[in-house]
Amino acid sequence: MKIGFVGLGIMGESMCENIIKKHDDKVYVFDYVKEKVDKLAALGAVPCSSSKEVAENVSVFITMVPKSEHSKAVYDEILPVLKKGQTCIDMSTIDPSVSVEISKMVKATGAEFADAPVVKSKPAAIAGKLGIYVGGSQEVYESIRPILLYMGENVIRMGDNGKGLVMKICHNALVSQIQNGVNETMTLAKKNGIDIPAYAEAISYGGAGNWYLDSKKEVLEKEDFTTAFSIENEHKDVHICLNLAKECEFSMPGEENAARVYDKALEMGLGKEDFSATIKVVRGE
Predict the structure, then answer these.
(1) Which of 18, 72, 91, 158 matches a 20 to 30 Å C-alpha distance to 7?
(2) 31 and 8 Cβ atoms separated by less than 8 Å
(3) In CATH, 3-161 is 3.40.50.790
């Protein structure tokens, strides 16, 4: 079974590298940044000059691109060469409604489609320990699960097409609100003479303990905001959440507050920094 992978960014590069290392057949790759293609070709991948070239050569076609418009462009490009017997997996985090639209386009060709967005960040992508939420039929889920396990250790089907993305958006929205709570209370504690290590240890003793703080306490203490997951990517996810809530006629004031923080972070020019750098916004820096 030949696999294709399009989109070799911060996450996609490591996800694809795991496929190359673990899969026993050819892996075809494409990205608009040639250096990224060359890097994976050096590891054994087959370099391609377009998404269409990838799709023409594989049984399973995987995408990991930044935004809804990028996913739509890729699938518009490959649609003429898709056929029965192929399966497309979009692992990008995009608007669920756009993903459902893409799924209908793909399935009209006879090919299958699943959305399979990921959670956790770069270190987990490197280790092959991502969490993966799948939207698609049970049959497609069972057929692609072994491939997804090259990249993640926790894989769960959430329902039909689009439902993996709904869950991913809910997950990242919750992270944004937990993060904002950590940023505000950590800053308040520090203003009253409690340093970050003491704050983090004390939080771990009670019901406010959380994975975000446990994973970021040293980053926040050192203020080393090397990007594992960028502010601009979480900004996108926060606003996808608010769009989804609007479609459902549902109010999310907590997420609206998180969105204000992320909007300000972009205004401050922090978009490329790790999303933990939002603490700068809360501190008023």
Answers:
(1) 158
(2) yes
(3) no
